[in-house]
Amino acid sequence: MRNVIILIIFIVLFACSLERNNPFENEIAPSAIGSEYFSITKISVDSIRINWEPTSATNDAIFADGYYIYRSGWENGNYSIADTHFTSMNLEYFDIDNNGELNFDENHYWYKISAFITTSSGDFEGYRSVAKTW
Predict the structure, then answer these.
(1) Residue 126: enclosing H or E segment and its boundaries?
(2) How confident is the model at residue 15 (pLDDT cuts 50, 70, 90)?
(3) How far apart are CA 38 and CA 91, in angstroms?
(4) Which of 105, 109, 107, 121 is nearest to 83 (CA)?
(5) Which end of the chain has a smaller Cβ tally under 10 Å, C or N?
(6) Domain coordinates of the chain in residue numbers?
């Protein structure tokens, strides 16, 4: 029984860690978007406006090639990609409820944004911003 408990503790401790697999992270990955540069405005029952300031890489003046916008029903819940912007010029996103599923009056959503750069090896995502809502 003691060995089972030790095994469970071992599994829980090591299964919960997130290992990022980005070989360029310390060199060229975009930095996280700070909460002071990221705002959300509820426009109507079916529309949210999200805008943010551009981010630069941590060690270079490389600007992001695009941004991922994540949405969740809870601040600490699972986030899924709501949209991908493939430009660093359009720094706003409108989350529009076209089919009545989101209903921004009855439901509250949380958003995170992360920047990414595109290299010959693929897209490399920076850290996600803090969660924000309206």
Answers:
(1) none
(2) low
(3) 10
(4) 109
(5) N
(6) 2-125
Contact, 77 vs 110, CB < 8 A?
A: yes
Q: Give the type of residue at 65.
A: D
For residue 87, give the amino acid letter.
T
The one-letter amino acid code at 131 reads A
The angle at the Cα of 126, spanning 46 to 114, to the nearest 5 degrees, equals 10
Contact in structure between 46 and 85 (CB atoms under 8 Å): no
Architecture of domain 2-125: Sandwich (2.60)
Q: What is the pTM of this model?
A: 0.69
Q: In what order do the strands lie in the sheet with 80-85?
A: 80-85, 66-72, 110-119, 122-125
| 3 state DSSP class of 131 | coil
Decide: helix, strand or coil at residue 4.
Answer: helix
DSSP string, 30-81: BPPPPGGGEEEEEEETTEEEEEE---BBSSS-PBPSEEEEEEESSTTS--EE
Q: What's the pLDDT tens digit per position in 50-68?
A: 998 776 544 444 567 888 9
DSSP single-letter state for residue 114: E
